[in-house]
Design goal:
There is one protein chain. Helices cover 55% and strands 5% of the residues. The longest helix is centred in the middle third of the chain and has 27 residues. About 16% of the residues have low confidence.
Amino acid sequence: MQDSRRPRAPQDPTHGSPRPGNRPGPDAGRVRFAAAGAGLAVLASALVVGDVLATAVGVALALAGIVMGIVALVRSRGTSGRGLLIAFAVIAILWGALNALGGGSRLLVWPATQAYQECTDRSLTLSSSRHCEQQLTDNVWHHFSGTPLETGSPSGEASPTGSASPTGSASPSGTTTPQPSSSASPTVSPAAASPTPTH
């Protein structure tokens, strides 16, 4: 006689409900929170190089990323995914601090930064780019001392407007055809190029 009973697998008492390993717990939420802080800090780096409004928003996002990173580090005690959480929190704090300092200093000397941007937009050579960098350094000091800022294109460089002097060239038929001179360079006075800001 055979035993008709077969061994059965033990039954799960929580049949139908998700297993504890499959559902996201509070640890996943903490990691997402730290990742969001790191994301804000990284996003801030794209904004702190723009105009004044974008720079201000970038600084605000960087500060929010720093705060979220600190909160994530404080709450990281006892979590299972602590290594990933700490990595995101450190990225949020360090990257956010870098962007907050860079954007904040840029906002602090905004008129000098704007004059530098205008100068580099007009510079065509490496020497004129170096002149713009020197002008930025001088303008930062001028900004803090209250003296007027230097503006305009670098000295000795061609500016975008001006007049060309025509010269003639002989054609095979013996007549002359007017052509612009190859040395024609447009010029604009630095005072007309950009007005000095008033405070």
